[in-house]
Write a structure and sequence with these properties.
Rossmann fold, alpha/beta, hydrolase activity, 10 helices, 6 strands, 6-stranded parallel sheet
Length: 260
């Protein structure tokens, strides 16, 4: 019997971003769900127009605790697939031994790992700006195209913004530089796949690669795979099916190995 898959969205997105992925993995025989972060449930356009109270101060601890509770409620340890900050949450769940396997797509790196990349530095500084206090970060169509969907045309990017983009807490990203963003990468762990996107302006592929190679236990499987020509919107831009199929194939092999 195939395990349940829990999809974890990243910043500036909500579960709607996983709709096509849910269908893809359900057709492959998996039970698949995509629970929302706290304060992220609903239609993106409505969430943009009426930002939930408390969004600006939403901490990483609350987001992680939310998914940890969901994972613990599963009858059997599930598989988790996370994008961006959702990838970091997937890595944290793996480190706690709560999941059967984890996949991080353009995953935010733990342990204060940074990249000397202009896009990474520009985006990180803009979002975590301490002078902004608890004011939510508003994702505009212009910013979405520049940073998130830079591989798409402006028309395609604007359509993706309208369908999927939400405003976001600044605090949740600030917290990765503290205790909540730490993982002991020396410990044994179940299989982990980290995926980088060559044209990513938010989490450069070089940082995802370094994240994957930072795991030290030689008995545990940790793997890095990179997709060329993709941006941070890798899960929604044209060609997402190739990424999903690659993950599905990886899971089939590693879950079989675990059963044996």
């Amino acid at each position: 019997m195939k395990p349940k898959i829990i999809f974890i969205h990243g910043m500036f997105q909500n579960p709607k971003s996983w709709n096509r992925w849910l269908s893809h993995f359900e057709s492959a025989g998996f039970e698949a769900v995509a629970p929302a972060w706290p304060l992220h449930d609903g239609e993106p356009a409505e969430l943009r127009a009426n930002m939930p109270y408390g969004l600006g101060s939403l901490p990483l601890e609350r987001v992680y605790g939310h998914y940890r509770d969901i994972v613990r409620e599963a009858v059997e340890p599930p598989v988790v697939i996370g994008h961006s900050l959702g990838g970091l949450i997937a890595q944290k769940l793996l480190a706690e031994g709560l999941v059967r396997a984890a996949i991080g797509i353009a995953s935010v790196a733990p342990n204060k790992m940074l990249a000397l990349d202009w896009g990474f530095m520009r985006n990180s500084a803009s979002i975590t700006n301490p002078f902004a206090g608890d004011e939510p970060y508003e994702m505009t169509p212009e910013l979405f195209h520049k940073n998130f969907a830079n591989t798409l045309s402006r028309e395609e990017s604007d359509a993706a913004w309208e369908a999927y983009a939400v405003h976001e807490s600044r605090q949740v990203l600030r917290d990765i530089l503290g205790e909540e963003g730490e993982i002991d990468m020396k410990l044994p762990h179940h299989p982990l796949l980290l995926i980088g996107a060559e044209k990513d302006e938010i989490i450069p592929a070089s940082l995802v690669r370094r994240n994957a190679h930072a795991y030290e236990d030689e008995r545990s499987h940790h793997e890095y795979k990179e997709f060329t020509g993709r941006g941070h919107f890798i899960c929604g831009e044209p060609g997402w099916e190739e990424v999903a199929a690659s993950i599905s194939n990886w899971l089939q092999g590693h879950l079989t190995a675990l059963r044996s």
